[in-house]
Amino acid sequence: MIMGLMERRKIKELRETTLPERVQEIEEICGKAVPYDVDWESLADDLEGLNFLDNLSCHRLNMALRTICLDELGKEAVREGLTLIKLKNVKDKAQMQMTFEGGVLEMHCAYALQTDGMFRDSDICTLLLAKL
What we know:
Blueprint: H1 5-30, E1 36-38, H2 47-68, H3 72-81, E2 84-89, E3 97-101, E4 104-109, H4 121-131
Parallel strand pairs: 1-2, 2-4
Antiparallel strand pairs: 3-4
Helix pairs in contact: 1-2, 2-4
């Protein structure tokens, strides 16, 4: 699959600027930097999806983490329980899934569908709270 210039530029921006800023934000919220592992191959031919990745996953997760990390107990639970965030792009709602196992939060979102292809921060929060 050949990636276009616009896609390459957006991936570069996400890798070098957006995701490091989001990791720093997570550290500010809970006291620990939690890295992202993005399946770039799943986004290679999807500029629309690339444009919505940050808002639909990173921003929503941080909103959920803010809800959980209202106190020191919540912050400690996240620091101890969340070790990696994996993101993958899927083509339609039927393929969407979200899991949290062994410290890894994995979200398969249909980013090109915009808000129809995301998990709400309340859903992310519920999943994390059940497993932390």
